[in-house]
Amino acid sequence: MLGLAPLGHLVRSFEWQPAPAATPDVEIVLTAAPAEVSLRPGAPTRVWQFHAKLVRGPAGTVTPMPGSYLGPMLRLRKGQRVRIHFENRLGEPSIVHWHGLDVPERADGHPRLAVDHGRDYTYDFEVGNRAGTCWYHPHPHMRTAAQVYQGLAGLLLVSDAEEEALQLPAGDGELPCVLQDRRFDAKNQLVYLNAAPRGGMGRGGGMGMGGGMGQMMEAMNGWLGDTVLVNGRVQPSLDVDRRTYRVRMLNGSNARFYKLAWSDGAPMTVIGGDGGLLDRPRTQRALTLAPGQRADVLLDLSTRAAGDSVQLLSLGFPADHAGSVGMMGATPPVPQGAPLTLMRLRLSGRQGARVRLPDRLSTLDWRAAPAAPVRRVPLTFMRMTWLLDGRTFDMDEVSGAETVKAGSTQVWEIANQPNPMGMAMAHPIHVHGTQFRVLSRTGGSANALREGIHDAGGTDTVVVLPGETVRVQFTFSRHPGLYLYHCHILEHEDMGMMRNLRIT
Ligand SMILES: [Cu+2]
Predict the structure, then answer these.
(1) Is the Cβ–Cβ distance between 317 and 259 less than 8 Å?
(2) Is residue 114 helix, strand or coil?
(3) Could you report the per-residue pLDDT of 444-489, keeping only the tens digit for each?
(4) What are 75-111's pLDDT values in tens digits?
(5) Which residues surround ligand 1, an ion (CB under 5 A)?
(6) N or C, which end of the chain has less CB nearby within 10 Å?
């Protein structure tokens, strides 16, 4: 345990910090509670859902998602001071993480901040991020996967002056597209692992065996649904105008990878990623979106004929390119890489605006730092559990290598190492409180998911394919405190493929 510092004193210090007193620009009450939503013909589905009430702030800050279990879409603007009162009415501990935002430690949703049922937690932060597509979801210890799966997630869009100057499609011209797969039973209820996924020999006494070996393997491989929902609805079909759309894509699935493409062969025009607008648009045949990742895509339907339809597809790829650690007793009904039709857009006769993109979208404040210190972070599978830098999560533990200076720059070599039997999985590695850049990808064998990875712009969640080493460059948050980095396959995260990152 050399180099590991106890953090008990930090945990205690939170209870004594008063909330900032200044009047915020935006104030929201965000409640997580059980609800029922009609998702399929027949009985309603019992879910957990975020509801938001805007107490103060511009109209349009909170947009509900009707007919969906998703939480409302939140729209924030760079520079706003935001206060969010989270009310936990779930019957178990929870806490909310603002995925993609660089916020103070107290506002980041670390699992040690989780509050019990009936309790509230107040977040105070200033939006420091540039414009981009972020999201929010729970982050309690070993219960993140189950809570997100039950419905707790929502989009969080940030705007700023640079983005506004581009006059991108807005209002009806903006389509949210949150992808999540689920399994339903015959009574329309969500089917999930019987027990919270836990590491086998790694920690905590092992996986609940109530579900048997099959369930344990499904946790190891990440839980896959048999039905993909878009914006919390089954098989949506949207009537759209002949105009340009801005599609805000989020892979909010627990474990499924998508290789997105339009059915008519039109390229994916990517204008933004996790970290907001790219410097210039990228066009590609397909777009890989791993769990936790977002993409901002422009879709020009202005020259299509009325009555046409365009589908959003996930192209087929070999299941082992996303990977698994074996299938003993566990064959998911729809495996990774199965070709899928996700959403159908039907063109009406209405003509709307066509948006022509400038060659240059934004100025990215980024420079390569060849002299930055390099840290190697292996991703491994040992004794039936996933390891991050050779360890699993411990609430109060952080290593020397996991302690970094606020605002400092580092390069991480994230190495996805197959086990001695050659088994590995693609892991989307998410780092809290920072947007980083991908410098290079080396190693690994031919992988059908690589074609759809663009690595342009800032990201907070990077896919590391089996056998691959990805070099990324960080400039860490200016906010000191205890943050996290983890795999965003939520079953992996809950099994302990997560570590503290301490910014000093
Ligand atoms: Cu993982």
Answers:
(1) yes
(2) coil
(3) 989 999 999 999 999 999 999 999 999 999 999 999 999 999 999 9
(4) 999 999 999 999 999 999 999 999 999 999 999 999 9
(5) 427, 487, 489, 492
(6) N
Instruction: From 229, 127, 134, 226, select the one nearest 186 (Cα to Cα).
Output: 226
Which residue in this structure is represented by tokens 């996790």? Answer: 274
Distance CA 437, CA 443 (A): 18
Instruction: Tell me the fold of 180-351.
Output: Immunoglobulin-like (2.60.40)
Superfamily of domain 374-503 in CATH is Cupredoxins -  blue copper proteins (2.60.40.420)
* Higher local confidence (pLDDT), 15 or 180: 180
Number of helices and strands in the chain (H, E) = 6, 34
343: helix, coil or strand? strand
Cα 282 to ligand 1 centre (Å): 27
Whats the size of the chain, residue-wise? 504
Q: How far is the CA of 158 from the centre of ligand 1 (A)?
A: 27
Rounded distance from Cα 424 to ligand 1 centre (Å):
9
Q: pLDDT of 205-251, one tens digit each?
A: 333 334 577 788 888 999 999 999 999 998 789 999 999 999 999 99
Q: Do domains 8-162 and 374-503 have the same CATH topology?
A: yes
Q: What is the 3-state secondary structure (H, E, C) of 15-75?
A: HHCCCCCCCCCEEEEEEEEEEEECCCCCCCEEEEEEEEEEEECCCCCEECCCCCCCCCEEE
ipTM score of complex: 0.90
Cα 409 to ligand 1 centroid, rounded to whole Å: 25
Quote the ligand 1 centre to 465 CA distance (angstroms). 10
Distance 251 CA to ligand 1 centre (A): 15
* Range 8-162: architecture per CATH: Sandwich (2.60)
